[in-house]
Amino acid sequence: MLKYIIRRLLVMVPVVLGVTVVISTLIYLSPGNPAQIALGQNANPEAVARLEQQMGLNKPPHLRYVDWLTQALQGNLGRSLETGTPVTDLIVERLPATLELAFASLAIMLVIALPLGVVSAVRQYSWVDNASMLFAIFWLSMPSFWLALILLLLFAVHWDFFPISGRAGALLSVTALSYLVLPAIANGARRAGLLTRMMRSSMLEILNKDYIRTAKGKGIGQRSVIYSHGMRNAMIPIVTLLGLQVPSLISSSVIVEVVFAWPGMGRLLVDAVLRRDYPVVQGVTLMYAVIVIVANLLVDIAYSYLDPQISYD
Amino acid sequence: MSDLQEGRSGRPNRSDESTTQSPDEETQLPSRRRKVAGRLIRNRLALLGSGIVLALVLTALFAPYIAPYDPVEQDYAALEQPPSLEHPFGTDTLGRDVFSRVVFGAKYAVFLGLVIVGFEMLLGVTLGLVAGYYGGMVESVIMRVVDVALSIPGVVLALAIAGMLGGGLIPLVIAISLVGWRGFTRLVRGDVKGVMEEEYIDAAKGAGVSDARLIVQHILPNVASSIIVYATLTIPTVILWAAGLSFLGMGVSPPTPEWGALIANGRGEIDDAWWISTFPGLAIMVTVIGFNVLGDGLRDALDPRQSEL
Amino acid sequence: MSTQERTTDTDGERPDDPIVRVHELEKHFPIKGGILQRTVGHVRAVDGVSFDIQTGETLGLVGESGCGKSTLGRTMARLEEATSGSVEFDGRDVTTASKRELKAIRRNVQMIFQDPASSLNPRMTVSQIITEPMRSLTDWSKSKREDRLYQLIEEVGLSKAHLSRAPHEFSGGQQQRVAIARALSVNPQFVIADEPTSALDVSVQADILNLLKDLQDEYDLTYLFISHDLSVVRHISDRVMVMYLGEVAEIAPTERLFDAPKHPYTRALLSSIPRASAGAMDDRIVLEGTVPSPEDPPDGCRFHPRCQEYIGEVCERTDPEVEPVDGRADHVCACHHY
Amino acid sequence: MTDPLLAIDDLHVHFHTEEGTVEALDGVDLEVYGDEVVGVIGESGCGKTVTMLSVMGLLQSPPAEVVGGSIRYDGRDLLTCSESELNEIRGEEISMIYQDPMTSLNPVLTVGRQVSEVLLAHRDISKRDARERSVEMLDACGLADPERLMDEYPHSLSGGMRQRVMIAMALVTEPNLLIADEPTTALDVTIQAQVMEVLRELRSDHEVSIVFITHDLPLVSEIADRIAVMYAGTVAETCSVERLFDRPLHPYTRKLTESIPKLDQPATRLPSIDGTVPSLVDPPDGCRFASRCPQFIGEECRSVTPALTDVSGTGRHEVACHLYTDVSEASPPWPVDDEDRTAQQPTAETDDGGRR
């Protein structure tokens, strides 16, 4: 098992490196002179030239990349052109909010989707199945930013159940929780719809397997057949699919953060892109990639626990 | 009679199965195409989906004839009017008719959906075919690139690309296309590997068929249906993405009546004029539902094995 | 009928006229493992196999799953690249042939596969399927190809009306007929049939076996007939080769192999076949255990851990040579008993 | 004669598919008596598995629908049992082993869990006792090191071992009836021989009736007392193994036995059956074999479905064919050269010809 994790970690290295190359290339190809952006439009050309020198902008791109990478490996992702704050500090400040939102959405997805999917599969073509499939189609067709606006309109503005926007620190109080509810729903709803359908089809597939017939033939009762024999097998593909959903969960959280003024990395990124604050864009994108890669690693480990057929070496 | 048959020493010119097959029985076997069409029609949801998609395309084509007003014409006499007979979806902060803007938005949705998915397919399917067919180093390299691309969340990458290229329609198309191809590559590569396991591929190799012909004649037709299904189900995702990026101000710029931009436009007024954002959102939702259920129906009809995406 | 050949075969006086010579053929598949997914071992699917096939004969190849019989067939048709050794067809080495040479060889070496449903491209019509080898391997004109197509479709017992249909509209037996027509379209001399009837019902199997025999007589075909079913092999073959774990256990003319099997594995295999007779089970040899993994075959004789006639350490230490038994050149066996 | 343990009477099963309603079973009659091995033989699609899945109540419905008939086991009609009543019978009184051992065991549960589960469901027994009993059963099925095997997952077992586990699982509750659905088809011959050996031994140790479904006539003749031949959803003939080879009465049975390549016979041209199995969607009236039958005798074959009738006077040889109107010792219209046939098909006249 340890060997397996080590191998997975080793495989991660080239992928992370690849990500840094892609991001650096994008930044390099972007128009605009970072030194000019940092100093403002009306800056003295000499000062701009001096800053360029200082920032290493006149070096060839591969050397700039190597410089950046060397610094990045030491935890230094540069400074924001806008405020001069170290990018690492900005990320550390915003990361908890982003993770909090991600986990809350994930929890909502799982709590709604798994039971609904299982019931739909077990009672295929019943009214429960039809209703939950319509429910799923409805949510998965909803643009998350629009849902966010509608939720805001109804539950925050119109009925005043929840605060309109922002975040009240870490999740320790009812107040803090109340800030989280709407963003988490907006972010999780679409994927809950998707997951319901996946769970249903996965369970349906398993229920058609020979070993389910064997189990039924043993006369152990429907409950045991579904839970002991069906569920665990059905979860194996679901865990994989959950892993594949992580990037899109993050994607929608970027937009949801903007709508609810949730102080996570997504808002940071959007602001940075709009202001062409390249070091921040670079740093945040890298951080997002790392989150995805780590999530995939966790999924693989969970997967190998669920499926005894996976060998660890 | 039986003894005669057994004693027969000649070649069995009479086929075991074909002799008793009357012409009537033969015509009973429905062709594959008819079967697919039949399954689509029986699926009522899929029918609804095709209806929605058809309506969308017609709206996009005939937008100028359907819309009662010019979508960009401002009317200071009618600012932020709630829905009425005159303005079924109300008017926005500049007095533009929301209904007309939503109708014209269909043009962008259809255009973006088709063009972007077209580009994604072109890039993704080609790479997937190459990776799956040749295997080895070529495959490793392509799949590592896919791994890297998949590690960056789509909107984040698209934001970075769109940010680099600046706003506008073309950068939007490029940004989303560069993000979406990887799904096609994964799918096609997997399918190609599956098809390569089939004995008819060995048979074709044994028949001396060239690589190019093998790919075009034997592999592509057998992976085509899953590509079609995936493409149909990708269109709504692309429409959502395009709207999302426009909403963030990274896509189509303000006066243009793109649905995401329309929602962004009404965002500030959500408490006074809910209709400005609500109707474009509904339009997106209906469109996405349409493509989704059509795609589901197509999957059931064409490719029942393909699991939920 | 092939009775003429059969009688000469059993006398062991068949003229030595091999059309195929396989020499020390090996096919190993790498196994990946460890942290860096390096090659940590090999599945020795085919491990040093030598034999000849005479012009016009049917060589039956039997063995249990995993013994390498299919891999051997596929390597001989160059659907797999050989690890070492050679397969000479008509004096030309198939394993090292260039693309152009391979085309010339393939005109004469064709293959029929196990699963008729999978061996026909579902998106092509029967006529496309049958003409494909002619298009790629010959320079025949369109009209010549069509003539051949019409001739073949009748010969395999189908009709012209079937040509425009798709494979899924046919039953398994009919699909296998299409596959046979495809293999024979370019007038090959040698056909490798890999379990051609194992996916079919017995009554349909009888039809296909009869058809293969008829076509052999008509076109002077040479067959390598791979099967796990000894009854079928006995029915169709002139000589039989038994494989165990990637190696040759025994080769002998059919009658002789079934009447006087030498290798303990052959004997166990023969006695395992169910037959509808009373005494059949009294002398049944039931082997212990299962076939070991070809990743890590036993030292010495590969059969020794399961052998009912284990004679001592020599079996564990030395891999027996394939040698003639009873002084007959046409009956060879790899066992320390002989 | 005592009452049969299992009596299937005029069973009709339909499958509702896109192509139409498939009349998979069209009046199947079959009886299994105590301590008897019945072989059910037929080609793919003839309905042998569907019949047995109906007995187990394991047909997927939809698309399957039992439209008529009855299945009486020990006095109860299984078709009218509720799911929970069925669960008391399945695994406890009737067990089944399936064709493909690779897919019939749950990949994520240990062997021990899967075997002892049956006991825990049907007996008031502690987990430890269930485990002990399971180990004994695995051992009885010829599996080496059963203790260790209990904690293994199926994927580390070979096909032959898995099928033995399946057998252990089926017999651990000592059922009265075992249904074996092509239990050796997926296995190699030498492994098949091992599994058959296990089945034969267990049969002599435990008093259990077996229904052995297969397409392999020689194989089933090794173990069965009586054979039922099925064709296109109907039972064509039932008789003892010896009679089947000596004196098959149904033209289909005869054709089937002849088309098998035989080891002990010199290679000649194999007789085959002309034509193809009729489509079971809207099948022809009358005898379903009529269109292929070499003994076709006229309109009656096309219009009247022949009933399975006793033709031996003893109830031990039944045939569904219009050729036989005389119910006492019918003789087939083809030459029966008993001596010659016995030479080619040496079958035992004694009782232990089928089993040992």
UniProtKB/TrEMBL annotation, chain A:
The chain crosses the membrane at residues 9-29, 101-122, 134-156, 168-189, 238-265, 285-306. Keywords: Cell membrane, Membrane, Transmembrane, Transmembrane helix, Transport. It is found in: Cell membrane. It comes from the Archaea. One of its GO terms (cellular component) is plasma membrane. It is a multi-pass membrane protein. CDD domains: TM_PBP2. Residues 95-299 form the ABC transmembrane type-1 domain. It holds the Pfam family BPD_transp_1. Gene3D superfamilies: MetI-like (1.10.3720.10). Its main location: membrane. GO terms for biological process: transmembrane transport. PANTHER family: DIPEPTIDE TRANSPORT SYSTEM PERMEASE PROTEIN DPPB-RELATED (PTHR43163:SF6). Belongs to the binding-protein-dependent transport system permease family. This is ABC transporter permease subunit. The lineage of its organism: Archaea, Methanobacteriati, Methanobacteriota, Stenosarchaea group, Halobacteria.
Automatic annotation (TrEMBL), chain B:
The keyword Oxidoreductase does not apply. Gene3D superfamilies: MetI-like. CDD domains: TM_PBP2. It holds the Pfam family BPD_transp_1. PROSITE patterns: ABC_TM1. The chain crosses the membrane at residues 45-67, 108-134, 168-184, 227-253, 273-295. InterPro entries: BP-dependent_transpt_permease, MetI-like, MetI-like_sf, OppC_N. One of its GO terms (biological process) is transmembrane transport. Residues 1-17 have a biased composition (Basic and acidic residues). Residues 1-33 are annotated as: Disordered. It comes from the Archaea. Its main location: membrane. Signal peptide: none annotated. The keyword tRNA-binding does not apply. It is a multi-pass membrane protein. Belongs to the binding-protein-dependent transport system permease family. This is ABC transporter permease subunit.
TrEMBL record, chain C:
SMART domains: AAA. GO terms for biological process: peptide transport; transmembrane transport. This is Dipeptide ABC transporter ATP-binding protein. One of its GO terms (molecular function) is ATP binding. Belongs to the ABC transporter superfamily. CDD domains: ABC_NikE_OppD_transporters. The keyword ATP-binding applies. Coiled coil: none annotated. It holds the Pfam family oligo_HPY. The keyword ATP-binding applies. SUPFAM superfamilies: P-loop containing nucleoside triphosphate hydrolases. Gene3D superfamilies: P-loop containing nucleotide triphosphate hydrolases (3.40.50.300). InterPro entries: AAA+_ATPase, ABC_transp_ATP-bind, ABC_transporter-like_ATP-bd, ABC_transporter-like_CS, Oligopep_ABC_C, P-loop_NTPase. Residues 20-270 form the ABC transporter domain. The lineage of its organism: Archaea, Methanobacteriati, Methanobacteriota, Stenosarchaea group, Halobacteria. Keywords: ATP-binding, Nucleotide-binding, Transport.
UniProtKB/TrEMBL annotation, chain D:
Transmembrane segments: none annotated. Its main location: membrane. It comes from the Archaea. Residues 6-257 form the ABC transporter domain. Pfam families: ABC_tran, oligo_HPY. It is a peripheral membrane protein. The keyword S-adenosyl-L-methionine does not apply. InterPro entries: AAA+_ATPase, ABC_Ni/Peptide_Import, ABC_transporter-like_ATP-bd, ABC_transporter-like_CS, Oligopep_ABC_C, P-loop_NTPase. Keywords: ATP-binding, Cell inner membrane, Cell membrane, Membrane, Nucleotide-binding, Translocase, Transport. One of its GO terms (molecular function) is ATP binding. GO terms for biological process: peptide transport. PROSITE patterns: ABC_TRANSPORTER_1, ABC_TRANSPORTER_2. PANTHER family: ATPASE AAA-TYPE CORE DOMAIN-CONTAINING PROTEIN (PTHR43297:SF14), OLIGOPEPTIDE TRANSPORT ATP-BINDING PROTEIN APPD (PTHR43297). This is ATP-binding cassette domain-containing protein. It comes from Halomarina oriensis. The lineage of its organism: Archaea, Methanobacteriati, Methanobacteriota, Stenosarchaea group, Halobacteria.
